[in-house]
From TrEMBL:
Protein known as: Phosphatidylinositol 4-kinase type 2
GO CC terms, sorted: dendrite; endosome; lysosomal membrane; membrane raft; mitochondrion; perikaryon; presynaptic membrane; trans-Golgi network
GO MF, any single term: 1-phosphatidylinositol 4-kinase activity
Domain PI3K/PI4K catalytic per the UniProt entry, residue ranges: 87-416
Length: 436
């Protein structure tokens, strides 16, 4: 790794926040937008009219959702923001151990899933009482010591990044987004401040306009696009056992499954059960000629896979033997089939390219450093584990092993910048995986 890599030397971002706007000529009217030069004496951002700040037009706004490389995603987030302004608030999801929300558009249609950082399973504002009870009654089992706490939203976005880089196309697009809603779980202080500022703006507008923000503070979290007509994999797998799939459709399922294995293994997902990856089984019929004949043409079924719930991945070390967090798909029959030539051709050339691996690490660095508690040392450990996973996966693909054999390989950590020894073997955890 060269000296320009973010894993070797810190990056120093030089951002010039000073900007200058010409003063508007002519008299000002109430409610008009006025931008004040950052260097003007006696002027500060606190005196800038709220109309301009609330709309996010200021280049200083750290909570503005901008995705220049993905205008389609930006448009969906804009629809979510517009719906919240129209008081169509996100709806909390009952399932799960954290505060996650179905986000809707102005028509009430679900368009995404938002998971705030502060409401993660081990976050301070987690609205679900199960984790609080676990922390109170069994503190020794609270949390996962192999993971960085309260970075699940980055793990969700990181899994989507890895999926896009490898062209697996099984993770719904996920990015870090800022949203504010009355239905989110805020502490009492934030809600009192919000009500006080709104009251001040209503009763004494001149005083209210001096506030930096009116309303609840935005929450940072992961925003994942919603996928329609998908069901838990466990539902379809049980059905496929009773009603075997046609050969071609079963081949589709196997190829999609192998992509899930590649993703989960590289990011070392510690929470992959058969209830948090989805399948869409589309068995449609062609009824265009139904009026002229009683025959109906049945089209070949199509299977699509969606890998959701990737918030407990990217560990700083391999799980301990007493809490292994195995991949539950390893007990499926698909895990006993050798990797196909299709997945080898798709993945192996990328994993064998040092420049691809370097770009992937740098993209993950740019993503993970957004967290206020980002620690470079912990990130080094996360990358070391990921490199070890890539090393094992590459070997398994070259030797045409099965996913079951892959997870039985000894865990490896690959350190490239710090330790003189490039690869250190860890204790064999193959006994933690189901029998062949």
């Amino acid at each position: 790794m060269d000296e320009t890599s973010p894993l070797v030397s810190p990056l120093q971002d030089s951002i010039d926040y000073n900007y200058c706007q010409s003063e508007a000529s002519g008299p000002r009217t109430p409610g008009s937008v006025v931008r004040v030069s950052a260097g003007s004496p006696g002027r500060s951002r606190e005196r800038q009219p709220l109309l301009d700040r609330d709309r996010g037009n200021s280049p200083r706004d750290p909570h503005r959702n901008e995705f220049p490389d993905d205008p389609e995603f930006r448009e969906i987030v804009r629809k979510a923001e517009q719906a919240i302004e129209e008081e169509i608030f996100p709806e909390r999801i009952c399932q799960g151990s954290s505060g996650s929300y179905f986000v809707k558009d102005s028509q009430g249609k679900v368009i995404g899933v938002f998971k705030p950082k502060t409401e993660e399973p081990y976050g301070q504002l987690n609205p679900k009482w199960t984790k609080w009870l676990q922390k109170l009654c069994c503190p020794c089992c609270f949390g996962r010591d192999c993971l960085v706490l309260n970075q699940g939203y980055l793990s969700e976005a990181g899994a989507s990044l890895v999926d896009q880089k490898l062209e697996l196309n099984i993770v719904p697009r996920t990015k870090v987004v800022y949203l504010a809603s009355d239905t989110f779980n805020y502490n009492a202080i934030d809600r009192v401040k919000s009500r006080g500022k709104r009251l001040a703006l209503e009763k004494v507008p001149k005083v209210g306009q001096r506030f930096h923000r009116i309303g609840l503070p935005p929450k940072v979290g992961s925003f994942q696009l919603f996928v329609e007509d998908y069901k838990d994999a466990d539902y379809w797998l049980r059905r496929f056992e009773a009603e075997p799939l046609p050969e071609n459709t079963n081949r589709q399922l196997q190829l999609q499954f192998e992509r899930l294995v590649v993703l989960d293994y590289i990011i070392r997902n510690t929470d992959r059960g058969n209830d948090n990856w989805l399948l869409k089984y589309d068995c449609s019929m062609d009824t265009e000629g139904k009026r002229d004949t009683d025959w109906v043409v049945v089209k070949e079924p199509i299977i699509r896979l969606a890998a959701i719930d990737n918030g407990l991945a990217f560990p700083i070390k391999h799980p301990d033997s007493w809490r292994a967090y195995p991949f539950y798909w390893v007990w499926l029959s698909q895990a006993k089939v050798p990797f196909s030539q299709e997945i080898r051709d798709l993945v192996l050339p990328k994993l064998a390219d040092p420049n691809f691996i370097k770009d992937l690490e740098e993209d993950l660095y740019e993503l993970f450093k957004k967290d206020p508690g980002f620690d470079r040392g912990q990130f080094h450990k996360q990358i070391a584990v990921m490199r070890g996973q890539i090393l094992n996966l590459s070997q398994a693909l070259k030797e045409s092993k099965t996913p079951l054999h892959l997870v039985q390989m000894p865990p490896v950590i690959v350190e490239t910048a710090r330790a003189p020894q490039r690869a250190n073997k860890e204790p064999d955890c193959s006994s933690l995986v189901g029998p062949d």
